[in-house]
Amino acid sequence: MGLCPRxxxxxxxxxxxERGQTHEEMMRPLSDKELAALARNDPRExxxxxxxxxxxxxxxxxxxxxxxxxxxxxxGNKRLPVEPGNLSLFxxxxxxGCENQDSDPQTPFLRASRTNAHxxxxxxxxxxxxxxxxxxxxxxxxVRLADESLPQTEYVAFLQESQNPCEDGYILQxxxxxxxxxxxxxxxxxxxxxxxxxxxxPLTDALWYFMEQERKxxxxxxxxxxxxxxxxxxxGDGDGAREELCFGLMVENGYYKIYRLWSRxxxxxx
Length: 270
Ligand SMILES: [Zn+2]
Hints:
Elements: H1 16-19, H2 23-27, H3 32-40, H4 43-60, E1 63-64, E2 67-68, H5 108-111, E3 122-126, H6 131-140, E4 155-161, H7 165-168, E5 172-178, H8 179-184, H9 203-218, E6 241-253, E7 258-269
Antiparallel strand pairs: 1-2, 3-6, 4-5, 5-7, 6-7
Helix pairs in contact: 3-4
């Protein structure tokens, strides 16, 4: 039986549900890393390894917590002209096609969408946002998938971890594409939208979960790492300039409801 991601022990009273696993997943044999952690018998190390293992298991199921993730290449016989899972492309604002957004450097005055007050908005913010802050931010940006009077579970999610965070400017990113955008912008399916699988979690919860996970993983203060350390990832020197977690959020396309959230780091300087 694998180590428990809640308490780090091999045998415990946590149910599969509490562990976020199926019965089979819970009963799987220990991995080499888990065996090594068990042998060292350091409770913190066991918990860290158990959580890492749970994350791997989740990846294999294409889950991020309770968020169902979609594949990079959209399934089906026909190749789409633009993959919604190609996170190197940004959807242009407006009701046009889904080609790469014009990346000409423009002033913020001219970069704004002409047809949507929020379209193309990018907000960079610190890791100290509260849940009410997030709610307010989403309301101000008119994120309709977070509007409680509208359906909030009709979206797909793509997750990507950067191999070169300093060059790419992000550590982990999640792209949200509404079922509507999937259907009418990407033409990823043709059936009824009502029958397309919905997410279990409303968008606000999904975005909050993303931030919570990243905060746990990297810690929230430059002097105290989380499960992993950011040190040096954005060329900090570990002394006069040290990495601290922060975030970015973008309204890629307000009309088709496409959004992006990513973790990054700022250098806190002496
Ligand atoms: Zn347990």
